[in-house]
Amino acid sequence: MVTLIEGESPAALRYLIELHQYTGRGHIIGVTGAPGAGKSTLVTQLVRELRRRERKVGVVAVDPSSPFSGGAILGDRIRMMELAGDPNVFIRSMASRGNLGGLSSSTRDVVRVMDAAGYDPVIIETVGTGQAEVEVMRAAQTVLVVCAPGMGDEIQAIKAGILEIADIFVVSKSDRPGSDQTVAELAMMLSLDPRRRQHDKTEPYWKIPVLKTSALKGQGLVELGDAIEQHRAYLLESGMLANRSQRQVQSEVEALVLHTVASSLKQLVSVADWQKIVEDITARTRDPYTVARELEQLLGLQPSGDS
Amino acid sequence: MSETRPIRVLVAKPGLDGHDRGAKVIARALRDAGMEVIYTGIRQTPEMIVEAALQEDVDAILMSILSGAHMAIFPRVVELLQQNNMDDVLVAAGGILPDEDIPAIKQLGIKGCFGPGTSTEEIITFVRENIQVDRLAAEV
User: Fold this and answer.
1) Which helix (DSSP H) or strand (DSSP E) does residue A261 occupy?
2) Model-level pTM greater than 0.80?
3) For domain B8-128, which CATH number applies: 3.90.550.10, 3.30.450.20, 3.40.50.280, 3.40.50.2000?
4) CA-based, 20 to 30 A from A212: which of A130, A261, A266, B120?
5) Residue A228, domain extent
6) Which of residues 45-84 of B touch A (CB under 8 A)?
């Protein structure tokens, strides 16, 4: 079924519609961070900790597709091999398949299938370097941003988007030197966040923790598990869960529509057509704006503004 | 007007082999040919291979064994695939496969045997031509 959904077959839509009523129960956790920060390793340890708490865990691990060949090496599973053989862990590797909005819609849908199947929590793991990944993180309820010490990841975390979506910061590989400093830098950056000062003290408030973990030493996982549970409790108590869900609904519908528009464009313009367009624009006999307008009109879109 | 999706392939190293450079070369070649490749590393048991194939819903499993354990491992993998109703998954073998064993391997339903000297193009073509097309067209 997951394959059907990824392949966006019509049968998939029927399944998704049917499953919708069974979804919404599991805790959806997003894990993101720069490449090499230790996400897969952390997720493996986290799954073990969750299994220790007797949860049935689903993992969706997303890797980028090659923009040239369209293929991908889905390399997260190999890092999670110690989880093999546990029937209460389901790992699915997905390629981003380069579709505008496509990453969001099928990843979300796969997460829903796992949710409906009773996996709780479902962990989405992706590389947080691009806009699409930020979109995916919007599908999660609790977002972990993973930084490695001394990698300059603290700067990465400051990039708009990642900072706004993080609920928990994890400094991985904390058996290495520099981890305390990274924790301090992140804590300082968080303390400067104006939203932190503004909150109304009578309302429930989530103070973003910065946690240290070491997969090598098996440390920090219990604290991380606790923080995740605390966040879920906070979301429920504060009504933020409902709030976030609603924002996600809008962004999801937007993503679906954009995806269809992108597909329609692909179907409308053949390779030969594109060739001609590129030649004309390069020769300056046409300009990109007018071409775009023509295509939009063919697609039945109403561009705003005057041409 | 169904868009076919990329072919998903599991590259597996069952048994106790320590050398997986060949498997990695093949994984990269398949990726460059537009396929989605899952490589689960060395020291895989038949159970781990089938579990991965099931969860990842792959179209093909390419197994490579250098250690000579193929006649012990391949039957077990095929058996598990049958138990899991995965008969529509293409299975191929690579590595060191003595000529005298190849008939027996093919008897198991393993369609392709690719020993040393096989080009990556051959494997890519083989996968493309032997995948169950109805898996890709994806209508249930």
Assistant:
1) helix A240-268
2) no
3) 3.40.50.280
4) A130
5) 2-254
6) 47-48, 51-52, 55-57
Average pLDDT of the segment spanning B45-53: 92
A280-303: per-residue pLDDT in tens? 989 988 888 889 888 888 888 876
Q: What ipTM does this complex have?
A: 0.72
pLDDT given at position B60: 95
Structure confidence by residue, pLDDT tens digits, B67-95: 888 999 999 999 999 999 888 899 999 99
- What is the strand order of the sheet A168-171 is part of? A89-95, A57-63, A122-125, A28-33, A142-147, A168-171, A210-212
Structural domains of chain A, count: 1
Q: Provide the token pair at A303.
A: 């561009």
Rg of chain B taking only CA atoms, in angstroms? 14
Name the minimum distance, in Å, from the CA of A297 to any CA of chain B. Answer: 23
Q: In whole angstroms, what separates CA B90 from the centre of its chain? A: 7
Residue A149 lies in a domain: yes
pLDDT band at B1; cut points 50, 70, 90:
very low
Ramachandran area for residue A195 (φ above 0: left; ψ -120 to 50: alpha; else beta): alpha
What's the DSSP call for residue A20?
Answer: G
Contacts of B37 in chain A (CB under 8 A): 71-74
Query: In the structure, what pLDDT confidence band is assigned to residue A102 with cuts at 50, 70 and 90?
Result: very low
Distance from the Cα of B48 to chain A's closest Cα (Å) equals 6
* First-last CA distance in chain A: 46
CATH of the domain at A103: 3.40.50.300
Question: Residue A194, preceding bond cis, omega within 30 degrees?
Answer: no
Q: Give the pLDDT score at B82.
A: 92
Q: Which of B1, B7, B123, B140 to mutate to test the interface with A (most CBs of A within 10 A)?
A: B140
Interface contact A71-B55, CB threshold 8 A: no
Residue A146 placed within a domain? yes
In a domain, A302, yes or no: no
Residue A267 lies in a domain: no
Task: Domain ranges for chain B, please list them.
Answer: 8-128
pLDDT level of residue A197 (50, 70, 90 thresholds): low
Determine whether the interchain pair B34/A77 forms a contact, defined as Cβ–Cβ distance below 8 Å: no
Q: Cα A218 vs. chain centroid, distance in angstroms?
A: 25
